[in-house]
Please model this.
Amino acid sequence: MADLLYGSPAPGLVEVPAGAVQCSPLIPGATDLAKVADGSAEGATVLAPPGTLERDFVLAQALRALKPGGRLTAFAPKDKGGSRLKKALERFGAAVGEDARRHHRFCFVTKAKGLTGLNEAIAAGSPRIVPAMGLWSQPGVFSWDRPDPGSLRLIEALPPLSGRGADLGCGVGLLAQAVLRAPGVEALACADVDRRAVECAQHNLDDPRVSVAWADLRTPLPGVEALDFVVMNPPFHDGGAEDRALGQAFIGTAAAMLRPGGACWLVANRHLPYEAPLAAAFKAVTLRGEGGGYKVYEARK
Ligand SMILES: C[S@@+](CC[C@H](N)C(=O)[O-])C[C@H]1O[C@@H](n2cnc3c(N)ncnc32)[C@H](O)[C@@H]1O
Model:
């Protein structure tokens, strides 16, 4: 394998070798870094994620995948883990060069003998059953080690649904699991942009009514249409910056996938301005629950 790339660096931030293979779990279709053979990559350019377990997992996987003498360039914004990157790499026994530019820290490692702790970091960042949810999850996925309070609020408010539906941004499947308790649900199309979440959801939702897709839901899932219902706890963070447009795009996607008269059940943080896009995309919007900083809406197409 030639070079690896993990993440989407801002244009001009770092030089990425031509033909580098994308390994981010957040880019549908990308290669799974964990499946790259040991010692096979010429180089790796890694936009390191901020969470400690996730970051160490990714750095350890990249070092494992590099061939001897291969070069790792790992970088992150200073205030999102960049200032801790050098220490993290040194804990693996690596000699680390460091540079700072455009509010980022850059670390350089040439793979040499004597790296330690890679297997431990990989084990600590791998999927496992999380007791607080009784579900498979993995560090790095949304609310990976506890149920999200917004999703719990939506679960409380949901009536038993029926017919064919979708869970947009399904995560590891917490909400979908609750929806599937209703015997009237005939089919549930789940989708998420995070491959790790999708793989966990596939384990967690072992039900013949379920399909799980790795997809960006800013556009509708191909071939999934005229649905009776959609449930969603739409994302409102994209790369750490609040991105209301993402939630608004989910509203458009839900409306496009529903049949006339179909219902979209949505939970959102109370401060998010979703009333206007909901009113624009649906015939009737009803507030079905409020509390704990969240609002639950039922929107009828
Ligand atoms: C607020 S979480 C809800 C997770 C899950 N439904 C639950 O109940 O725990 C939003 C989910 O949307 C996913 N997501 C973010 N951007 C997305 C996109 N563009 N397309 C599809 N899914 C996306 C995230 O990975 C995350 O799992």
In short: The longest helix spans residues 52-65. DSSP finds eight helices and 17 strands in the chain. Residues 142-143, 148, 151, 169-171, 174-175, 192-194, 197, 216-218, 233, 235, 246 surround S-adenosylmethionine (CB under 6 Å). Residues 3-124 form a domain with the Rossmann fold fold (CATH 3.40.50.150).
